[in-house]
Structure formats: structure tokens, C-alpha cells
Automatic annotation (TrEMBL):
Species this protein is from: Takifugu rubripes (Japanese pufferfish)
Domain of life: Eukaryota
Entry EC no(s): 3.2.1.-
Protein name (database record): alpha-1,2-Mannosidase
Gene: LOC105418968
Source lineage: Eukaryota, Metazoa, Chordata, Craniata, Vertebrata
One CC-aspect GO term: endoplasmic reticulum membrane
Amino acid sequence: QGTPHRQEAVRDAFRHAWKGYKAFAWGHDELQPLSKSYSEWFGLGLTIIDALDTMWILELREEFEEARRWVATELSFNRNVDVNLFESTIRILGGLLSTYHLTGDPLFLSKAEDMGSRLMPAFNTPSKIPYSDVNIGRGTAHPPHWTSDSTVAEVTSIQLEFRELSRLTQQPQYQAAVAQVMERVHVLEGKLDGLVPMFINTNSGQFTHQGVYTLGARADSYYEYLLKQWIQGGRKEDQLLEDYLQAIEGVKKNLLQRSSPTGLTFVGELSHGQFSPKMDHLVCFLPGVLALGAHNGLPADHMDLAKELMKTCYQMYVQMETGLSPEIVHFNMYEGSSRDMDVKLADRHNLLRPETVESLFYLYRLTKDPVYQDWGFQILQNFNKYAKVPSGGYTSINNVRDPEFPSPRDKMESFFLGETLKYLYLLFSEDPNLISLDRYVFNTEAHPLPIWTSAE
């Protein structure tokens, strides 16, 4: 089971996914592999843009060229369509910027600049905290229909991309807009030991729904982007680093517990002072981020915690009958429980998410312990066993606890190609210079952006 063989298995998986996308969803956002159809989210060929740099890194040149042709001839952002600011920034803007850097092809930079300028109306709010949605054709923006709040993770996880767009275009407005958000959040009341609530109001610029603290959905990538902006900027912006270090201490103090019977370290949630042993699969980004911080000179105990949490995230796969993790697990903390984790019926789905293999990549790259590669290969094999659709593509499944009827959901998220398969390929690579962690920082959609050097 040498690593070239494993890398080839990832390329096979990508080709199989791409075959389904090409046959049934070409030019559309996402493949529905079972019904041999597609679904639209923004109507911008999301899967193609998200997968561009993956194809480049996997050296799938033929597939890359046909995707590039589509971008050159078909991709237009002059559309009367509402997009989510965060999702289109991390997937589309991030994907175009990283592909530009990897290829040097100016086509991708000009498309990135076009998209970036169309997203700017989102920042035109009373507080300068951006709206969640923007119409890229009309240049109008608005919050969701039910609230004037934005999600904290969303408004604080667009910075890497906009900062890089300013650097490349020499136009300061992109960086200025996202820096204002970070400065605002930095001084806000309502944090707990550096942990942030999940919502922020676009009118008042204040946190809302206070008292709930999680590292899962709606808050997760805030913490990731504190560290990564600091790394991107050449480790000069102390405010970002201070906020990150304080937050990690806040996690240790308020959210870290051990399960019973085997004592897995996990990250729970806090709701109005009550601890809940609930952990989203999304939280499995954290081992990788902690390891990356330690690699950049942060305390060594961050790496110890990274390894412990990595083990827990792997167990979220192993302890399921399909060997695939559910969306959410609840850990048992009382003495005498027979198993470490329970999964509620509504939480048993697997969306082909990347967070665990992402962290496996960081831990392998930074420790060289081959056990992380073995764990990742098991996960890939289980995707092949339970999520692969014969006619092409992979599908999310509804029930990771039932290997007989995992109950496919008929959707291949763009991040399966953009992130999950990319991180698996990088995990199986023995070349530390293939997207070196000293030269690139990955955005939260696995699109590598350059670390700024002082020469620039």
C-alpha cells in the first residue's frame, strides 16, 4: 500500500466524480448522481470552479483544460442572481485566486476581480458588517428574509480572499472592507474568553443571540481565519494572533471534556452556562488548525491537543457501522456508559465533508506519522464503498449507521472535489513542497493562497 498507489486511488475517485458531473450536470452547480441530474444554487458552475485547483494539483491536465475552456467561454457573473457572500467568496473567489497562483493564467485573475467587485455591495450596511446575500448582477445586497443578522463565521471568513484580491489588484477597498469587520469583532462585548456568539446584527454591529458558544456551524471558521490571516500577512498582525491564542485558551477552559468509557477528548458547546457534549463534524477542522499554529511557533501543547482531537475525529468514523462520520455526535460523559458516542436520528447523514481528512493532512505533513495516512485511506475506501454511484459521481448519505441501506441523498457537494479529494491526495503525498505550508495558506474551502513575503 505505497503512497503512489493511494494517490492514484484519489485520482480514480476524482475521475469517477468528474465523469458523473460531466455527463449529467456540466456547467451547473452540483451533480445529483442518482437522478442523473443537477441542482442550482447560484447558477455559476460551482463544481467546476471549486475543482479547478484540485485538477491542477492532481495533474489531471485534460480535465483541467476543458474546465478552463468553460471558464473562458461560458462563465459570466453578469447575472440577476442572489449569492451568499461567504460561500461565493470561499468557493468562487478563493477557487479563482488559487488557480491563478498555481497556473499563472491571467484569465483566472480577471474573473476573480470581476467577482470580487460584484460582492462589494454586501458591505454597504449601517455597521459595515456585511449582509449575507448579494445580487451580483444588480449590485444590491440584503440580509436573509427572516432576520437582519449575519452569521459570525461568515463575516469573519472572507478576509483571506479579499486581502489577497487587494494585493493582486493594488486596489485597497477589498482589504479595507474585510479589515473593518475584524476590527469591529475584536472590540465587541459578548465574548467568553475569546469565544464568539454565532450571530451579529448588520444594523447595530452587535452580537445577537448571545450566550451560545460553539466551534461548529456558524462560528467555526472565525477561529481558523484568525490564525490564517496572521500567517498570510507574514505573522505581523498581533491583534489577530492575540485573539486566536485567547480563543484556544477559551476552548480549553470552557469546551474541552473527555468521554466515557474510553476518555476521548472532545469539544462540546456552551449554552447559557450549560455544557452540551455535542460536537459537529465541522469541529474536526480544529486539529489541523492547532497543528498549523504549532508549526508557526505557537505553544507545543497546541500540537498535543491537535493529536488528541485528531484521534477523536477518527473515532467518529470508526465507531459508525459504515466507517463514515455522521454530521453531529453526542458524547457520553457519565460513568458506566457502554459507548463513547451516540448519534441522534436527524444527525446520521454524511455530506462527504472534508474536515477530518483536512486535519489528517496537516498532522501527517507536520509529524510524518504514517498512521494518519492509514486513517485517511480507510476513509477513502469507505467513501468508495457507501457513497460511490456506479454511473458516475459520489452522493451524500442519510444514515451512516446502516451499511445495508445507507440511504443515499442524491447530491454531490462541490466541496467533495474542492476539498475532500484534494486533502486526501495531499495527505498521500510524500513531497512537503507540494503546496508547502511555509509558502501557502489554505482558505476554508481548501484553496491555497500565497503567504505574503516581506519582499512584496
